[in-house]
Amino acid sequence: MTKSNLLKLSILSVGKAHDAYIKDGVEQFTKRIGHYYPIDWQLIPPSKLTDPIQIKKAEAANIIKVLAVTDILILLDEKGKMISSPGLAKLIQQKANQSAQRIVFLIGGAYGVDDEIKSRSNFTWSISELVFPHMLVRLILAEQIYRACSILANEKYHHE
Q1: pTM score, two decimals?
Q2: What would be the CATH architecture of the domain defined by 8-152?
Q3: CA distance 103 to 72
Q4: What is the SS3 assignment for 74-126?
Q5: pLDDT at 6
Q6: Domain layout of the chain by residue ranges
Q7: Which is nearest to 110 in space by CA: 88, 137, 81, 150?
Q8: In 3D, which of 44, 34, 112, 108 has the Cα closest to residue 73?
Q9: What whole-number distance in Å separates Cα of residue 71 and Cα of residue 30?
Q10: Residue 3 above 80 pLDDT?
Q11: Are 136 and 23 in contact, with CB atoms under 8 Å apart?
Q12: What is the pLDDT of residues 48-100, one digit of tens each?
């Protein structure tokens, strides 16, 4: 697998900047992913409203602003479908084969995401039946994307 000039990866996360205990790991895996695909992170500030419904609507408006119509949106949600690491690799490869320009992985806010975002998503993925802090999900997501890339490249990082 060589670095794709067509497919780009983006990770959107609603919340504050990476905490120090997460930052190094996220940066390390992001750098590794960059050997395969261009990748970027976009942090969307959490809403300062107090009503959870209004918070989700405000955050949805900010998420929609950064999405292109052609983006493939993969929403991380505890109610999504669980897939294996090879399954994630297959999903990325399928989208690349379909000439996707950008795959966007979205980690929603503390109250989840508005129905508008759920209906806009192309795939809803649950990384675990466990619930993790959003910061930890960022690290897990970055590692899993890297693992998927190494699987696609037939490299030794992933052991079956």
Answers
A1: 0.94
A2: 3-Layer(aba) Sandwich (3.40)
A3: 5
A4: EEEEEEEECCCHHHHHHHHHHHHHCCCCEEEEEECECCECCHHHHHHCCEEEC
A5: 81
A6: 8-152
A7: 137
A8: 108
A9: 20
A10: no
A11: no
A12: 999 999 999 999 999 999 999 999 999 999 999 999 999 999 999 999 999 99
